[in-house]
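Exercise 7b. Backbone tokens:
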């Protein structure tokens, strides 16, 4: 018997004015972790949505599970065939525990409309045990650690009420995980593989892909470039496969320029206090990239929004040459030249209904405003320039933002931040969902901006971002700055050690952080 569990033959998907998949063939074996990799917009999400039944593929596309063809574009058929999905946002109701979250999608045990709670809870405990992560099944999902939330979503996907789960698709499963919890999720995946579950693993994190996947398939422009064994492959080779040309390693030291002690800051913030942050002081100097490190819940994300007036905060903010202010609104911050780039998953990152050009134009760059009005023609021209610089695909300024792939949305959000010629650029998780090529372009753009004198503040959970961009890093733990790393001290090991300085990070988690990468 063939050990092919899932077979796709000639799968194509054409959207109006866009062919997202062209004749993709793919075979996933029983009990293997099979990674799906490719640049932003290469068709990974579309392929997953075809498998889940969300998209009906073009005629002639064929999908088989264990040799049995399924009717693609039919969610119930996909579920019955054993295809299961854990999407990036996990889709959990934060107020409910694992027991109810599983019940909401898989159904509750019981008869005649009455829930047999004892049987249902037993079933959920059994599912959690399969995943191998111990969780109080009544604890609201919003109060679980990130990896526990992932485990609940995986357990829910593995419920067999609607058929035996055969293939589990994990879409960027580590995107929301702090470094300390990644290893734990990898262990969960390895255990599921041992039990014969096939896993399709979608990720831009090349180290993770090579660490966990047995084989990988590369998509480019909606076509499969082939399937490869991961054994013996290194990150450089994989990056080249994905991008189609050698990708130079991100050099770090070259860009560092120590800030003179006496240099006066462009922006100073004192006593920044929010629900999470406690009297944070910081300043950033001309030509400097200041990093802010911290795990989820440390106040890192709040800091970015508070600086740009997008979150209620108490603070004294001083821009060079201006009197200090006590409160900042988005409008005030923008007026002072502070631009905020949010991660594309944030609801305020962009206006989904508007086009790429209109979103870029929201920054009202001087080049597109004429006597107070936006010139749509200039807006499009400027958008075209940025589309080319950041390699946004498709390269159409009139494209609706909501129809872009995740990574391309992130590039547009970044373009909008850069285009308004900010005095200080504040970035929150700037590389979320972007591919290896775009990551390098973003690092380069931020450094180039610094080289012209304009400082940035980069808040990120991704240690590569901080090592790749920052001249200096403040480390947040429990809403307070606990350490400052400068110049050569900004290393992955240095950051992990600093993040561990307070006991709020459990010892077990610290041990994992060290061995993670
Ligand atoms: N509903 C849609 N209508 C029109 N075009 C779409 C739609 N969904 C996706 N596309 C287009 O299909 C192409 C493939 O997008 P897809 O989201 O599958 O890429 P991806 O590989 O998942 O990218 P990323 O890594 O950025 O998430 C893109 O050009 C995208 O703009």
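Sequence design result:
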């Amino acid at each position: 018997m063939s050990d092919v569990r899932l077979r796709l033959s000639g799968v194509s998907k054409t959207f109006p004015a866009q062919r997202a998949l062209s004749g993709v063939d793919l075979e996933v074996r029983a009990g293997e972790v099979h990674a799906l990799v490719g640049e932003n917009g290469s068709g990974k999400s579309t392929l997953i949505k075809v498998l889940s039944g969300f998209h009906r593929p073009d005629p002639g596309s064929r999908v088989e599970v264990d040799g049995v063809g399924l009717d693609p574009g039919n969610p119930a058929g996909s579920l019955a065939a054993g295809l299961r999905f854990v999407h990036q946002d996990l889709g959990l109701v934060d107020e409910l525990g694992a027991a109810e979250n599983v019940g909401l999608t898989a159904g509750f045990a019981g008869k005649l409309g009455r829930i047999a709670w004892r049987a249902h809870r037993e079933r959920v405990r059994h599912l959690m045990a399969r995943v191998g992560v111990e969780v109080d099944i009544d604890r609201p999902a919003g109060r679980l650690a990130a990896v526990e939330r992932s485990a609940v979503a995986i357990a829910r996907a593995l419920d067999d009420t609607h058929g035996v789960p055969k293939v589990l698709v994990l879409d960027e499963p580590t995107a929301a995980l702090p470094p300390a919890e990644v290893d734990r999720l990898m262990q969960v995946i390895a255990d599921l593989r041992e039990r014969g579950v096939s896993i399709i693993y979608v990720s831009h994190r090349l180290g993770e892909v090579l660490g966990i996947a047995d084989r990988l398939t590369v998509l480019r422009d909606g076509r499969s470039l082939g399937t490869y064994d991961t054994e013996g492959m290194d990150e450089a080779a994989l990056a080249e496969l994905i991008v189609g040309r050698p990708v130079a390693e991100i050099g770090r030291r070259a860009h560092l320029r120590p800030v003179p002690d006496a240099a006066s800051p462009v922006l100073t913030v004192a006593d920044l206090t929010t629900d999470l942050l406690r009297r944070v002081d910081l300043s950033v100097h001309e030509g400097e990239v200041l990093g802010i490190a911290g795990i989820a819940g440390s106040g890192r994300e709040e800091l970015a929004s508070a600086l740009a007036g997008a979150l209620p905060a108490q603070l004294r903010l001083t821009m060079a040459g201006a009197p200090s202010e006590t409160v900042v609104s988005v409008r005030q911050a923008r007026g002072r030249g502070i631009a905020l780039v949010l991660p594309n998953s944030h609801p305020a990152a962009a206006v989904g209904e508007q086009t790429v050009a209109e979103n870029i134009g929201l920054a009202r760059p001087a080049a597109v405003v004429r006597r107070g009005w936006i010139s749509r023609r200039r807006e499009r021209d400027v958008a075209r320039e940025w589309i080319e610089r950041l390699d946004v695909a498709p390269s159409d300024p009139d494209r609706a933002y909501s129809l872009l792939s995740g990574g391309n949305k992130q590039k547009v959000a970044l373009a909008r931040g850069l285009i308004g010629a900010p005095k200080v650029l504040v970035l929150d998780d700037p590389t979320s969902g972007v591919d290896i090529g775009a990551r390098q372009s973003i690092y380069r753009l931020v450094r180039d901006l610094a080289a012209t004198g304009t400082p940035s503040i980069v808040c990120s959970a991704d240690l590569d971002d901080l090592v790749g961009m920052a001249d200096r890093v403040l480390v947040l733990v429990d809403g307070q700055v606990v350490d400052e790393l400068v110049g050569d001290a900004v290393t992955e090991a240095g950051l992990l050690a600093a993040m561990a300085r307070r006991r709020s990070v459990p010892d077990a988690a610290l041990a994992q952080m060290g061995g993670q990468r």
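Instructor comment: Residues 267-501 form a domain with the Rossmann fold fold (CATH 3.40.50.300). Residues 15, 18, 20, 38, 40-46, 393-394, 403-408, 433, 435 surround adenosine-5'-triphosphate (CB under 6 Å).
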